[in-house]
Design goal:
This protein is globular. The strands form 3 sheets. The chain has a 5-stranded antiparallel sheet with strand order 5-4-3-7-6. The protein has a 3-stranded antiparallel sheet with strand order 8-9-10. It is α+β, with helices and mostly antiparallel strands.
């Protein structure tokens, strides 16, 4: 792993001193009592932190969780509420997903093997986050990249603003549309993107 993106913390836990790179942790869980749990990479060893028992370490881990998306953009972190816990999961670390005929979506947390079973109605928000990851990142990654948008526009036979598919994400440069600045000023304001 690139050391420039490491986030090492040092702490004592159950009579041992640990030095842990938080970027290597694949998920965190926080329950109603505000306990934060995480598993050391490639082990079944959980670390369970309580705010009053490990205040400095707890604060460092909580700060990392709160800023993980800004600092580590190559991971795919999501927050899921499941079984009365908040889970902060790097979905790019999950290695298997299963979908049942009923629509339920199952995946297994890295390192501890716990299964997360999401129902499309009961766990609608969490289900949508995981389903979006599967569709956009695993199954169809090129359909959602800026390069694919440009490729689809350049290779289409009609480049007029009214013929651009609405489901293409991202900003589309004006010169790809085949419009000059003069043409775009004549009532064609409906092709602005709102991201």
């Amino acid at each position: 792993m690139d050391r420039s993106v490491s986030h090492w913390i040092q702490f004592s836990y159950e009579r041992q001193d640990y030095l842990v790179d938080l970027t290597s942790i694949r998920f965190f869980a926080r329950d109603a009592s505000q306990r934060i749990s995480f598993w050391l990479p490639d082990s079944a060893m959980p670390i369970v932190l309580m705010p009053h028992d490990h205040p400095d370490t707890y604060r460092q881990v909580l700060t990392f969780i709160d800023h993980r998306l800004d600092v580590y953009p190559n991971a795919y972190w999501v927050k899921l509420i499941y079984d009365r816990r908040d889970y902060f999961i790097n979905l790019s670390a999950v290695r298997a997903f299963a979908r049942q005929a009923s629509g339920r979506l199952t995946f297994w947390l890295p390192d501890n093997g716990q299964d997360i079973v999401l129902h499309p109605v009961v766990n609608a928000e969490a289900y949508q986050l995981v389903n979006d990851y599967i569709n956009k990142v695993i199954l169809h990654p090129m359909m959602h990249s800026p390069e694919d948008v440009v490729d689809r526009l350049v290779n289409s036979s009609d480049h007029s603003p009214g013929n651009i598919p609405e489901n293409i994400p991202g900003n589309i440069p004006e010169n790809i549309l085949g419009n000059s600045k003069d043409e775009s000023d004549h009532g064609n304001s409906n092709h602005e993107n709102s991201n």
